Amino acid sequence: MPNDFLDQCRARLGEHYVLTDPADTAPFLLDWRKRFQGTALAVLRPGSAGEVADVVALCATHGVAIVPQGGNTGLCGGATPDTSGRQVVLSLQRLNRIRNVDTINDTITVEAGCILQVIQEEAASAGRLFPLSLAAEGSCTIGGNLSTNAGGTGVLRYGNARELCLGLEVVTPQGELWDGLRGLRKNNTGYDLRDLYIGAEGTLGIITAAVLKLYPAPAAQLTALAGLATPRDALALLDLARRMAGPLLTGFELMSDFCLALVGKHYPHMRYPFAERQPQTVLLELSDSESESHAREIFERLMEAAFEQGIVRDAVVAESGAQSQALWDLREHIPLAQADEGKNIKHDVSVPISRIADFIEATDAALADAFPGLRMVTFGHLGDGNLHYNVSPPEGTDYDAFLVNQASINRLVHDSVHAHDGSISAEHGLGQLKREEIVRYKSPLEIRLMQAIKQALDPQGIMNPGKVV
Predict the structure, then answer these.
(1) 8 Å CB contact between 278 and 257
(2) Per-residue pLDDT reduced to its tens digit, 174-221
(3) Radius of gyration for the chain, computed over Cα atoms and rounded to the nearest angstrom
(4) What is the separation, in whole angstroms, between the first and last Cα of the chain?
(5) Any idea of the CA torsion for 426, 431, 434, 440, to the nearest 10 degrees?
(6) Looking at the domain assignment, is residue 146 inside a domain?
(7) Same structural domain for residues 395 and 306?
């Protein structure tokens, strides 16, 4: 069967787009964090939605399981095959065309393999903004972003990937092509299939294209850092900023002192922004449709009030685009610096914004009691309740020995997230990393409903098996 199946794939895609040589398939079989390594019968690289539909139909006929993959930047193993060697990786990278830009409707229609940064640049060239922004934007693809309902730094104002998508084109597990590429903001005609596929991590079908929302490009963006004593002060600043800046507030990122210390250690050219160390730092961004002077005036009033109320201890305001980028670079280099420091245990969690300080205090204390000396790398999108609550071992500890405690640390953190009414996955998805863990925190009814949807749409179980549910 494998040879017959692969021959049919070659006949449809072309010899060069059915990869079986180990040297050619290797980059597709290892996840970005190098935690999950799989094998595959082949890597298929279709160049159009029609070709995706054809090879999925072949897979359905031959009972071959499919692992969809975009830029392979995921953090939970959701795009990595298992070790059986019987699955195929279906790479969407060749589906990379911008199909349409509609500045009157403020939409852009793109194929799933488009790099996020390319979409941002295409929007900018049309005088528009596509606000989804995250650290991997130079290599991640929009299909993967939608499949994990990616968040990033602009969720506070613009929402997750789900809120930025109006329509989808999807290949079903039977190889049928659903054209739902409607640029409509109101469409109340039954079940919302679009929302079903977004966040499903390729377990229900394969997204091949999307209609995305655009926004007017802001006239000015103002970036600043504020130094604070505690996460509670950060929440007080967020409340104040919302009241005084309203919708102009587009970014609000929290970074602990240890985060910036790691950046300084591994990237010494990035200067610490304050004269004295600050226990917590918040990066704020205002986007103004009027002018930079208007944004600066609002920010100055905001900081004056924050200093008067004892919320902020110090502040730095970017005076140019280059300085603004330098401040954002501090934030974006935290994951890189932690990786340079060595192996670590990552948590992508969300809790109600009002309970973030409680969560950090309680969980920090519990971890310190159970595993003395742990170093907490706590940062994230405070404005939408999403924390990257990462754990590094005590300095000088053998990293492999430290990772023996991963299950216990995960359980402690996730139980605390659940106790604070949160979610153990905010924007990275479940993949294979958290597939079993989520059963502990979702009700049996939720799990049964998810399984019923999976069975109804993918009765053969060929779409990304072993992931999510």
Answers:
(1) yes
(2) 999 999 999 999 999 999 999 999 999 999 999 999 999 999 999 999
(3) 23
(4) 28
(5) 90
(6) yes
(7) no
